[in-house]
Design brief:
Helices cover 36% and strands 16% of the residues. The chain is of the alpha/beta class. Strand 4, helix 6 and strand 5 form a beta-alpha-beta unit. The C terminus is likely disordered. Bound molecules: flavin mononucleotide.
């Protein structure tokens, strides 16, 4: 069954590590039949949450900025994928703002409008120790609990300090592509994406050849 996947990227670095993993995920997902929309949190004209919780009665946020588009996409997608560089052991501020603006969906009335049931996390960090992802895993778990998302997987890529560091790690690219495929269609055999390469986007081939 194809899925409607909403990916929200959160790196201000153009074509950086996390964005490349997002593209690999998207390529895998599309190869498995999903539709993918990528929203760049860094170019959203969106204020932070004002914290008055009026959204819980109204059913949506009262701020009329790009959060309206975020709301519409949350009400027309099946899967939410958050993509972030690790900043101070957490989400980038751009993704944190998005997470805060998802607060309406923690209440029953708006949650009933939200079609997203599943989620994934893609995160990159400079620190080579995978333990660097401990805090963000906890934060993501909280998002999933409050918003009633089933987490379908995470790609957590440590040791990516330089702007193009992920280019030296095809294993992360493959992991992201495999997760995109698996989320789209659990029946797809993702054990060897090379066998499926003709199905992928042209631009992704360089990573797998
Ligand atoms: C403001 C800032 C804070 C950062 N904080 C951390 C951190 O706490 N731990 C870490 O391992 N890397 C940290 N990094 C490094 C980035 O997470 C890492 O380079 C990442 O791969 C960048 O992804 P991008 O290329 O998609 O932007 C930080 C980088 C910046 C700019």
């Amino acid at each position: 069954m194809s899925k409607r996947i909403l990916m929200i990227t959160g790196s201000p670095r153009a074509n950086g590590n996390s964005t490349k993993l997002a593209e690999a995920f998207a390529a895998g997902a599309m190869a498995a039949g999903s539709t993918v929309e990528i929203l760049d949190a860094c170019s959203l004209n969106m204020d932070g949450c004002h914290g008055d919780a009026s959204c819980h009665e109204r059913g949506c946020c009262g701020l009329k900025d790009d959060g309206v588009k975020l709301h519409e996409l949350m009400c027309s997608s099946d899967v939410l994928v958050l993509v972030t560089p690790i900043y101070w052991k957490s989400f980038s501020s751009q993704i944190k703002k998005v997470v805060d603006r998802l607060y309406p969906f923690a209440a029953p009335k708006p949650r009933a409008l939200c079609t997203v049931k599943e989620s994934c996390l893609i995160a990159t960090a400079g620190n080579p120790d995978p333990a660097v992802f401990g805090p963000i895993k906890e934060e993501f778990e909280l998002v999933n609990t409050l918003l009633k998302f089933e987490c379908k997987g995470m790609v957590l890529a440590p040791g990516l300090g330089g702007p193009d560091a992920v280019d030296e790690h095809p294993e992360y690219i493959k992991e992201a592509a495999r997760l995109g495929m698996r989320v789209s269609s659990p029946a797809v055999d993702t054990s060897n994406p090379l066998l499926e390469k003709n199905h992928y986007l042209e631009k992704m081939k360089s990573y797998w050849l």
